[in-house]
Amino acid sequence: MKALEGVRILDMTHVQSGPTCTQLLAWFGADVIKVERPGIGDATRGQLRDIPDVDSLYFTMLNHNKRSITLNTKDDKGKEIFTRLIEECDVMVENFAPGALDRMGFSWERIQQINPRMIYASVKGFGPGPYSDCKVYENVAQCAGGGASTTGFPDGPPLVTGAQVGDSGTGLNLALGIVTALYHREKSGKGQRVLASMQDGVLNLCRVKLRDQQRLQRGPLTEYSQFGEGVEFGESTPRAGNDSGGGQPGRILKCKGWETDPNAYTYFITQAAVWKSICDVIGRPEWKDDPDFATPSQRLPRLGEVFEAIENWTKTKTKYEVMEICNPLDIPVGPILSMKELSEEPSLRETGTVVEVDHPERGKYLTVGNPIKLSDSPAEVRRSPLLGEHTEEILREVVGFNDDEIISAQTVGAV
Ligand code: CAO
């Protein structure tokens, strides 16, 4: 039995943030019923298509283990079916533009009347406040949540990151909110409203940058490279390039082959505890006792010189050789892995983090499996549903319709 078996989710999500949340719940065993507009479906089915007329990888990789019902929730008959689904489900999840469900006639008050045990969970771009009405996509959230202003190099423009911290990150927050509310319902018997805003989610992940904002008022941030370079600090947390976020200085350094391979780099952390080993490895044993380099505070103004010496060594090794030499000495390093390398890495296939899935229309493709592993509830990744693939099954099983009622709903275009 899976951890969330018996939990039924009414999934009104689309695009990325909401679907990542409900996909996770489905992997944990919940029955996720994805509601989509008849004939249209989730917009991502047709976005960034690599094969004509076949659900895109964008869609398939975000909607595994779900069932799909098509339902026009603006039509009278559709509203009646939707009401029955609210009665029968434990959780409703949505990430429409603000107010969309209210406009359909399903406000939180109405949902509570229909099913007081319902947990109603939403992703929105912003929480209550001046921007609560705005539509938001990933990069907007990264910019509004502090990610972009603190990413990039100090002399360059703000940058967004490839990690989808606004969408998938907020999806994770919402999933946690939902299981917490389910746990609370066990005791209270009542559902509740769960809201995860993308701005809040990104800011939460930028916590250390708000820490630095406050430290800045008491003096320069000595672990930032710009300190050693004599560049003055401004009023807000600056972009730190590839500086390590913590108190252990680190940078991305070139490795053998960097001239032709854009990912022949390693991250290298000069952790204080292993400084002497670092000096030996890079051929600078004299730095162990040099009053300019022996302690972390002596090194901080000279990080440029330190990392130049380390890079002169890493450039003679591949990123994997750097790992092989440094790991046994407890020197924290990490190769810069490309998507190609990650997709081919056998250990990720073995743990189910990278999974090959078979789809009836597109054939085999790779996806990222459940990043959270439960010992008694392993995730099995099943393909995403075709549009409306389970409409009749759900109308019969969950809504309780007979053949005539199904035909009648089809005839009026409600499903
Ligand atoms: N039956 C009938 N109508 C349906 C329906 C159904 N089954 N499913 C959706 N609709 C309707 C909605 O009710 C809405 O209609 P109204 O505008 O008349 O109320 C309409 O379809 C479109 O919904 P939307 O405004 O949410 O969609 P959009 O493509 O214009 O905006 C997005 C997309 C993501 C910008 C917006 O949904 C949003 O800001 N969501 C919240 C933040 C979020 O999750 N962003 C991350 C997205 S991933 O990058």
Task: Give a written overview of the molecule.
There is one protein chain. This protein is 36% helix and 13% strand. It has 415 residues and is an alpha/beta fold. A six-stranded parallel sheet has the order 3-2-1-4-5-6, sandwiched between helices. Strand 1 (8-12), helix 1 (17-27) and strand 2 form a beta-alpha-beta unit. The chain is elongated. The structure holds oxidized coenzyme A (CAO). Oxidized coenzyme A binds at residues 15-18, 35-37, 43, 71-74, 95-97, 100, 103-104, 123-125, 135-138, 167.
Primary descriptors:
elongated, six-stranded parallel β-sheet, alpha/beta, binds oxidized coenzyme A, single chain, 18 helices, 415 residues
Give the secondary structure arrangement, pairings included.
Blueprint: E1 8-12, H1 17-27, E2 31-36, H2 57-60, E3 66-70, H3 76-88, E4 91-94, H4 100-103, H5 108-114, E5 119-124, H6 138-144, H7 167-188, E6 193-197, H8 198-205, H9 207-216, H10 225-228, E7 250-254, E8 265-269, H11 275-281, H12 296-299, H13 303-314, H14 319-326, E9 333-335, H15 339-344, H16 346-350, E10 354-359, E11 363-368, H17 391-399, H18 403-411
Parallel strand pairs: 1-2, 1-4, 2-3, 4-5, 5-6
Antiparallel strand pairs: 7-8, 8-9, 10-11
Helix pairs in contact: 1-7, 6-8, 7-8
The site of oxidized coenzyme A (CAO) has 26 residues, from helix 1, strand 2, helix 4 and strand 5.
